[in-house]
Amino acid sequence: MFRKILLLSFVLVIYSNLCNAQMNDSIMLRKIYDQALENGKAYDWLHELCFKIGNRVSGSPQADKAVKWGDSLMRTLGYDSVFLQPCMVPQWWRGPKEKAHFMVGKKKVDVNILALGGSIATPKEGMDAAIVMIDTFDDIDSMMVEACRGKILFINGKMNQKNIRTFQSYGHCVRQRWAGASAAAKKGAIAVVVRSVGTSTDEFPHTGSMGYEENIAQIPACAISTIHADMLEAQLKKHKGDDGAVRFYFNQQCKMLEEKQSYNVVGEIRGSQFPNEIIIVGGHLDSWDVGHGAHDDGAGVVQSMQVLQSFKALGIKPKRTIRAVLFMNEENGGRGGTKYAELAAANKENTIAAIETDAGGFSPQGFSFENDSLRAFKVRSYKNLFEPYQLFSWNYSGGGADINHLRNQGTLLIGLVPDSQRYFDIHHTAADTFDKVNKRELHLGAAAMTGLVYLMSEYGF
Amino acid sequence: MFRKILLLSFVLVIYSNLCNAQMNDSIMLRKIYDQALENGKAYDWLHELCFKIGNRVSGSPQADKAVKWGDSLMRTLGYDSVFLQPCMVPQWWRGPKEKAHFMVGKKKVDVNILALGGSIATPKEGMDAAIVMIDTFDDIDSMMVEACRGKILFINGKMNQKNIRTFQSYGHCVRQRWAGASAAAKKGAIAVVVRSVGTSTDEFPHTGSMGYEENIAQIPACAISTIHADMLEAQLKKHKGDDGAVRFYFNQQCKMLEEKQSYNVVGEIRGSQFPNEIIIVGGHLDSWDVGHGAHDDGAGVVQSMQVLQSFKALGIKPKRTIRAVLFMNEENGGRGGTKYAELAAANKENTIAAIETDAGGFSPQGFSFENDSLRAFKVRSYKNLFEPYQLFSWNYSGGGADINHLRNQGTLLIGLVPDSQRYFDIHHTAADTFDKVNKRELHLGAAAMTGLVYLMSEYGF
């Protein structure tokens, strides 16, 4: 009997502690959200980054400025330490504004293009040749060399509008941008024009990185805006069978410069109980060289700093060490992510979890995990705490490009999942500007991450 | 034994039918979403409404045009019938652009205001008086008449940023706009200026309807932009205790004209099996007289028509009658909603369910029901079918202003629930323009409603 009572008491104590913990966690999450929504600084920081610095491709003077800005800003925020991690980055320079048009007989139609990041230039006088079209990247395999040789290939793949999450469609369609040039060169094409990988029909071409395969001729590659892609497509369909009927001209004078030193910027609040267990939250400081890089990834940068700022503002001393990492060179090399992981391994750091925010500063919907590891299972058990904040999507679509390098260090990789409907309207375009970011949405994303970091810091694994 | 086998077979048949139904429903929902995302017309229709007609306050020539536009458009879509429901609407005319400033000593600060809908004018030469401030509408009760008499009262209530759903904050704060004038008049104020009921800090004042209590002096009422409210607040705080230190001037020449005939526009596809059971989906055709009325409620208008359009495009013959209702005069009278319910009662119509879309054309998150009736219970059981489309919020925050009049007719009242973060940035302002609407978000909302209408039409109650 006594043992039964003892057991019962034991169970009751455990249960009551669990209930208390759950209640205290709820209260803390509410405080975190209140703080971010009422007094979050991320939006103001983003304004500074967008208007005082602007876009900031790796190696550019603006990227240097952004490093200084992140470093100085974090030094004012009272963190335990702020430090830089040097890394070499590639430097690709777009050159003067591209020019392009197509001709149907004597009719000339000017079109908007952007050279793809990493592409070589056209000759100085530009390139002028017959253009042929394929509907999707997959069609390239069955293309006859005769149909392509000496011509410009237009890869007209469209993002699938049917997927509810636009990232799924992006993942499929982006191959034409990344791999289109070498695939076209194998068929004898002298240049490649890809339809912009985007969801809306407008005049803004979407740039982004591309690569050349080894031992394949390098040909110039550019993206054409979706509205102009539609016009080009219509003419090519109209003149189907008459391969020389439509000619394309473009001129881009981009080039690779020498590699240059740049930096990741890291801010840290040291854990009060388990300082050697590290949780990171990060976005990337570089952007493409058009627009403001506001959603991609200014938003992620300021949200990551907001997480630490919220801990400071609320006076929460985390049990484990938390770090905001502003990665360099996500867009065209991923050198910052690689370097971070390399240093973490060299320093034998125990990075227990990493959250990346690089999918836009839109309304957060949940988190994504790389797989259903035991750690992911534990973190997913916090889901119910986030239901009042409408974070219903806890799925397995991976972490993110910068933190993925930590995979072999046993780190739980997590991505913030925002609403994805608008992201690929403006991704890598001149339209990715500050006015597209909503303050509440941005701060809700920061609050979501702060909440999750808090719970992981309290309970560990 | 035989009976057991019989029972088991029976259970298996039921179960298998249920599984088939569920599977067929899933397939149909996928088709509905595919159709809306790939070939939805709502966005193009909204473009027409915004750019060919523009904003359309009740009684205005543009509202007349909008009625004709909705009627003509639906007549081209092959519905079984399209008809107008005449109703008298109030006509409030803003007059020439308002002027306003405040003075601190000799320093003059121009500010942006909008007269509130329904307000009387200032004298022709405007009004110029000392201004006093209260922080929230609730503070008015404890205000001394002496502090207010002969002055302009500034009600500076701010929307609570902490609520995750912004409609909650709106519901609380909007009282200062609706009831501020009479409350101020009771304290002897000669005019009322309210802080715009909005979530962002910017230069756009938010108009909206207000009412005068009977037997209380009518005083002019306007809303001031949030950025100018901040400036005014700062000066009033600085000069606290010195009641005459800050003076406010404004001039608005708005007035009520005679009531005028207008119309609800209704399109119908008759049910193939239960034509007398009616499901309606609707938004309101009128808007405020600034901006485009794009989110409020052009979005709802075109989404409602899209629901019927999707049925036609997919060749679905609904078992029950479905109607798109474009209500008139939601903003300042609700006469269209009242008239619709009145006619439905007079015609002894059986409106089994009504969905209203009047919360912006943003990413849909779910549906809201008025209460947990048996009908709501049945419809909520469809929730799992919508999880692939990220509709996770099925709550009880009510139907909508236009369909609420059907409450006493046994109708299940449902509201489409979109993401609410951006809505009150632009609500009732010159910034509620077409460019703020995202095509995919708009069409996802239409698809969500089409799916729910389909299921209710198939299975009834």
Describe the 3D structure.
Two copies of one chain form a homodimer. By secondary structure, the first copy, chain A, is of the alpha/beta class. Chain A has two domains: 37-90 and 258-459, Aminopeptidase (3-Layer(aba) Sandwich); 97-254, Glucose Oxidase, domain 1. Chain A has helices at residues 2-39, 42-53, 61-75, 145-148, 166-173, 175-186, 226-238, 294-314, 335-346, 374-380, 423-426, 439-459; strands spanning 81-93, 99-104, 107-110, 113-115, 127-134, 152-155, 191-195, 221-224, 246-251, 255-269, 274-284, 320-327, 350-356, 364-369, 393-395, 412-418. An eight-stranded mixed β-sheet of chain A has the order 1-10-12-11-13-16-14-15, sandwiched between helices. Chain A has an eight-stranded mixed β-sheet with strand order 3-2-9-5-6-7-8-4, sandwiched between helices. In chain A, strand 11 (274-284), helix 8 and strand 12 form a beta-alpha-beta unit. At the A-B interface, helix 1 and helix 12 of A face helix 1 and helix 12 of B.
**Percent of sequence in beta strands of chain A:** 15-25%
Tell how many strands the DSSP assignment of chain A holds. 16
Unreliable parts of chain A: none
The helix-strand sequence of chain A is HHHEEEEEHEHHEEHEEEHEHEEHEEHH
Distance between the termini of chain A: 36 Å
Shape designation of chain A: elongated
CATH domain class name of the largest domain in chain A = Alpha Beta
